[in-house]
Amino acid sequence: MRRQEKWVLFFLLFFFLVIRLYHLDLPPLEIEESWRQADTESMAWNFANYDFNPFHPNLNYDGPLPNIPALEIQVTTYIIAILYKLFGHHYFLARMVPLTFFLLSVVYLYLFVRMYLSGRGAVFSLLIYGILPINVYYSRAIMPESAALMFSIGGLYYFNIWVNGKEATLVGQTSFKVYLNLILSSVFLSLAIMTKPPVVFIALPMFYLCFQNFKWQWLKFPELWKYALVTLGLPLGYYFFSGRLAEHKFTLGISRDIVLKNALTAFYSQEAFLFFAGNIPKTLGITALFLAFLGLPLVTKRQSVILVWFGAMLLEVIFIVSPIRATYYLIFFIVPCALLIGNLLERILGGFRGKRWGTQIAAVVMAALILSIALESFYQVKPMFKINRHMVNQVKVVQEITAQDDLLVIGALEPCLLSLTDRRGWRYNLRNYSYVPEDPYEELNYYIARGAKYFVPIQGKVYGDRDGKIMAYIEETYPKIETVEGYPIYALR
After folding, report:
1. Do the Cβ atoms of 34 and 419 come closer than 8 Å?
2. Does pTM surpass 0.85?
3. Count of alpha carbons within 13 Å of 197, Cβ hemisphere only?
4. Is the pLDDT assigned to residue 171 strictly greater than 50?
């Protein structure tokens, strides 16, 4: 990069950091994905305080520790745990880890896109990438998505460098740096797949790069077959190992029963339609979505890998996001969208160049479009930062009444309360496990026999108790402790 480009990149990184400082030291009490964030943070805390083995992530629900589920590799949580051990339990440390991964993804994205766009086009792409709604919020959320973004973009970048270097080796010029890039790509892509399996769709632009540069000759490259074996073999080996080690395998059931069974049909369902209608604005915003599709026909032959990348992530949306319907899985789709928008803005600038008042008109048009995206992003992201005041009160009450080693039963689907209070226990009335009695009264006795000391309804309600019979039974049977009106706790023993 030229010196001027380095300064522009540094400014963008600083700008992206500044706009993400809000609530940096806040526990996962925001309404948006508090469950996932609290789960992730609690695993880091359990690493630091209970079992520092990186292959032993422990969750706070499904009973006392150890409580090891079958999960993706815990890069984000383990780094947070190291920081906790060194500097203490501070939430800004937990948020700085995904934020750092995101800023690194910005650097790798710039290095990649600079091969296909001009300096201006690359800057426009990064600016859009950094201010899109989903990135503004989730890049500092205590979740592994930022790490998966960085590993996948970095892996694609190093693979592209290898492809360019491989052309030199075909004419007799060999270099260790060429193979080093392939090794780095393998490491990054393996970690990406182990962090978030849906990123495997990044293989499509990689196949395209091979075919674009070598036609079918790439099938004869032995190092490429070794690369594929290692890059896919390591994640497969890890997931097999994790599944064998885990005490609870419900996450494997999610992949099997929700994603795989419905991958081919979910996209056409009413549920998927309603999900995308409600979440696309939170992901891209209407302006950015319109500009991304407007930029599709402007991609040149030399830039066609961006188009393939867009198609690959669109497949991820169709086959993975549609059945699982989780907003944060859309984070991978917005990367090529940002490149399409950056290329479009560069074309707008080029289209007016040389004409009378051309520069001024182009500046006004681009400023209006970027401002529209930024304002829409602010409008979409602002509600995500809203604090769940009811959960704040619930956490305070539980921490005041119960001890850290008390086992709780919570009347909720989400285990957020257990994680935020640093307590262990069970979620009630879910009927998720075959070994737990289906009858809610027998289920409660099952937990009591295993050491449960308190029952905590969420704001006085129990999940799935529509007619209030379960809550009435608990009210009549167990002593109530209510230090704050509306937030009762019941002593089970």
Report:
1. no
2. yes
3. 16
4. no
Q: How many other CB atoms sit within 10 Å of the CB of residue 270?
A: 7
Is the peptide bond between 66 and the residue preceding it cis, with omega within 30 degrees of 0? Answer: yes
Count of all residues that appear for the chain in the document: 493
- Nearest of 470, 461, 453 to residue 488 by alpha carbon: 461
| 3-state class (DSSP) for residue 456 | strand
| Distance set, CA 463 to CA 39, 324, 330, 410 (Å) | 19, 21, 28, 9
Q: For residue range 371-429, list pLDDT tens digits in order.
A: 999 999 999 999 999 999 999 999 999 999 999 999 999 999 888 999 999 999 999 99
List the one residue out of 113, 34, 124, 71 whose CA is nearest residue 346: 124
Residue 94 to residue 92: CA distance in whole angstroms: 5
**pLDDT given for residue 356 in this prediction:** 62
345 Cβ partners below 8 Å, 6+ apart?
121, 124, 128, 366, 369, 370
Helix axes 34-49, 75-87, angle to 10 degrees: 60
484 φ/ψ angles, rounded to the nearest 5 degrees: -125, 125
Q: What is the 3-state secondary structure (H, E, C) of 126-152?
A: HHHHHHCHHHHHHCCCCCCHHHHHHHH
Query: Residue 464 contacts by C-beta under 8 Å, 6 or more apart in sequence?
Result: 429, 430
The 407-411 sheet, strands edge to edge: 424-427, 407-411, 452-457, 489-491, 480-481
What's the number of CA atoms in the CB half-sphere (13 Å) around residue 214?
22
Alpha helices in 197-318 (DSSP H): 203-214, 222-245, 250-254, 261-262, 270-283, 286-294, 304-316
Please choose, from the candidates 491, 418, 405, the residue with its C-alpha nearest in 3D space to the C-alpha of residue 458: 418
Q: Which two tokens stand for residue 290?
A: 């319109």
- Encode 366-432 in three state secondary structure: HHHHHHHHHHHHHHHHHHHHCECHHHHHHHHHHHHHCCCCCEEEEECCCCHHHHHHCCEEEECCCCC
